[in-house]
Design a protein that fits this description.
By secondary structure, this protein is of the alpha+beta class. About 55% of the residues lie in helices and about 10% in strands. It folds into two domains: about 25-95, no CATH class; about 145-365, no CATH class. It is built from 17 helices and eight strands. It is globular.
Length: about 375
């Protein structure tokens, strides 16, 4: 079995009760069958609380006020862990914030941006992320798994990550190159022509592709009316999603009013001031944007082998990064035109928590329309 992890993976350490948030509230914790079977056999003083705290019919933990796990105490620590030890945790709690994607004889493990400590680790990284491979005994076979498509996706992801980590290019150009590549690959995939995918990868690594994308992104940037309308439309998608925590609705309402509530002219002025401030006071924000894009592409792109939606996965990565940047601009304005690293971490992990911990939300984000036309071919 081949395992792949990002180079920062082993640096992660859970800070438990010292965390500013908790991973045990705001979403339903699904309990695996093996853990449920173990819980049924528990005896002693903790057995009663354990049985009352499990929804045996649905295979989840019950929740208290604020959608907090029934085992989460006032110190934001786990009573189950305290009473029965680490080995008592269900698979969900044992793994989080590790995110696992599984393919035939391949297991890819990343850290979820929805965890504040993981977000801190990822966003603080200055160097381009490297992905490390190692082998462990064991093999798994999947029915209806297409190894040829998977190998093409792995190769495509390698090229996309190389583009996203090319710091000679601006972030908008890097994102648009990945989108254009994904669009043209989607067309080939739907026509049954994926065998020629290398042609598209080569095309989007040429200087002519970069020049084409540069012009498209610059035209969009100069059309301030369109930029405002597009940003407002993309942000509106967030209101169509399932809200996991009530405070997120407040964040959306405040940000939408700050950014779009006073019209195009105010939006343009705010974004211009934010960009000037960012270049002077927070130039490393571009590196953080890169890390976010790399995170989404690495985590989700190869899942195309199961659903065939390569363009949807690339769109989601770019749209999510764009919306995070919009939320950061709103937070900067709210903070009297300043932004600390802690603010960035909070915005990112809150956004990730709302999007990535709801399958319907992930699906809706994949279906979002990206307004900037970036394709270079239709074949």
């Amino acid at each position: 079995m081949l395992y792949t992890i990002p180079d920062y993976y082993k640096e992660f350490r859970c800070i438990a009760g010292d965390c500013e948030d908790t991973c045990c509230a705001g979403w339903q914790i699904v309990v695996d069958p093996k853990s449920l079977a173990r819980y049924r056999k528990v005896k002693g003083s903790f057995a009663g609380k354990l049985r009352r705290s499990v929804d045996w019919k649905n295979g989840t933990f019950h929740q208290t006020k604020g959608r907090r796990c029934a085992f989460l105490n006032q110190e934001n620590l786990c009573d189950l862990y305290a009473a029965l030890g680490k080995q008592s945790l269900c698979r969900t709690c044992r793994l989080y914030p590790r995110h696992v994607e599984e393919f035939e004889n391949v297991r890819e493990i990343t850290l979820s941006l929805s965890c504040p400590e993981a977000a801190r680790l990822i966003l603080a990284k200055k160097e381009p992320v490297r992905f490390l491979n190692y082998e462990k005994d064991g093999e798994e076979e999947y029915e209806d798994f297409d190894p040829l498509m998977y190998s093409a996706l792995v190769r495509t992801r390698e090229v996309m990550l190389r583009i996203l980590q090319d710091r000679t290019k601006s972030i908008p150009v890097r994102g648009a190159l990945v989108l254009g590549m994904a669009h043209d690959l989607q067309v080939r995939l739907e026509k049954g022509m994926l065998f020629s995918y290398e042609e598209i990868l080569e095309r989007y690594q040429k200087s002519s592709a970069e020049a084409f994308i540069n012009k498209k992104t610059e035209d969009w940037k100069q059309d301030t009316g369109r930029r405002f309308a597009d940003a407002q439309m993309l942000f509106a998608n967030l209101y169509d999603l399932e809200i996991l925590r009530e405070e997120w609705k407040t964040v959306l309402d405040e940000s939408a009013y700050i950014l779009y509530g006073k019209g195009e002219a105010q939006y343009r002025k705010l974004k211009e001031r934010f960009e000037i401030w960012r270049k002077e006071q927070l130039p490393e924000l571009d590196v953080m944007k890169e890390q976010i894009l790399v995170y989404f592409i690495f985590t989700y792109l190869c899942g195309v082998v199961y659903d065939g939606n390569v363009y949807a996965k690339a769109k989601m990565a770019v749209i999510c990064t764009f919306l995070i940047c919009e939320l950061l601009a709103a937070r900067w304005y709210k903070n009297e035109e300043t932004l600390e690293f802690g603010d960035i971490v909070e915005v990112v992990y809150q956004f990730s928590r709302e999007i990535e911990h709801s399958d319907p939300n992930l699906e809706r984000m994949e279906r979002s329309i990206f307004p900037l036309e970036i394709r270079r071919s239709t074949s």
